[in-house]
Amino acid sequence: MHCVPESKNARAVGRIVAALLIAGGIFYAVPIVSRAAGIRVFAPLFTALTFACVIAAVFLLVRYRMTSFQYIVRPRAEAEDSGLLTAYASGAKLNLADLPPETLDFVVIRSQGARPGAMECVLGMDDLIEVTPIRRAKKDGTTRSEIGKKYRPGGDYISYDYTVTLAPDDALALVFRDGPKTVGIFIEPDEKMKAYFLGFGKGKKS
User: Fold this and answer.
1) What's the pLDDT score for residue 206?
2) How far apart are CA 187 and CA 168, in angstroms?
3) Beta pairing class for 181-187 and 156-161
4) Residue ranges of E strands in the chain
5) Measured in Å, how far apart are the chain's first and last C-alpha atoms?
6) CB under 8 A, 24+ apart: contacts of 141-147
7) Which run of H or E residues covers position 13?
8) In this structure, which of 4, 52, 125, 141 has its CB flanked by the most CB atoms within 10 Å?
9) Please, are residues 183 and 148 in contact by the beta-carbon 8 Å criterion?
10) Position 90 confidence tier, pLDDT thresholds 50, 70, 90
11) If we measure between CA atoms, which residue out of 46, 41, 48 comes closest to residue 26?
């Protein structure tokens, strides 16, 4: 199973980047114009604001316009080598939904620009302990911070954001046990993958 999410607010991100660059240009020009007009201003403040705007613009551009992800649920190599998957194949077609969790991995591949993608994470589906839809506002459902509050007191908790939409309204949290750590993965799957994870996660909430 394979999914390449698409940003739902790419134009909005572009407008924010443009606004930040314009603001940076204005902040940069203020000390120059003020000096020419004989007005004293605290130039280091405007320099810092210029840098802050440019850095924020570059971050948003790289993170939300130049970065893409692939989500993959795939059989493990050892399961393929053992011939176990053949027993679960329906005719010539293998149905992932019928496979035991211990034969599957969840993989995220990150790509930036024209560079080839690299695997960001590989986690066993048998280590998946919770699947939860995530909303921006608490009133609409579970938030990312609530996931962190739930698992952080129990030990080491780390999270990774693999969404491509800035502040998405509808993301999915996948929580895995990875040795002594608990790992929260935030993704934007398509409807097919979302249905798969929600069905897979039934009875796995802790």
Assistant:
1) 46
2) 10
3) parallel
4) 2-3, 67-75, 89-90, 93-94, 104-112, 118-124, 128-134, 156-161, 171-178, 181-187
5) 25
6) 142/173, 144/173, 144/184, 144/186, 147/173, 147/175, 147/184
7) helix 10-36
8) 125
9) no
10) low
11) 46
**pTM reported for the whole predicted model:** 0.85
Q: Is the dihedral of CA 197, 200, 205, 206 positive or negative?
A: negative
Site of tokens 């939300």: 64
- For 195, the token pair is 């249905």
Q: How far apart are alpha carbons 20 and 13 in whole angstroms?
A: 11
Query: What is the C-alpha separation between 111 and 73, in angstroms, rounded?
Result: 18
- Token code pair at residue 112: 């930036």
Q: How far is CA 41 from CA 21, 22, 37, 81, 98, in A?
A: 21, 20, 11, 70, 69
- Nearest 10 degrees: Cα torsion 93, 101, 103, 182: 140
CA nearest to 13, candidates 66, 69, 65, 68: 65
Q: Has residue 24 got a pLDDT over 60?
A: yes
Spatial separation of the C-alpha atoms in residues 40 and 42, rounded to whole Å: 7
Q: 């293998």: which residue's tokens?
A: 94
**Helices in 37-175 by DSSP H: which ranges?**
43-64, 77-82, 84-88, 144-151
Mean pLDDT, rounded, of the chain: 88
- Partners of residue 175 on adjacent β-strands: 130, 184
Tokens 């459902």 — which residue?
A: 141
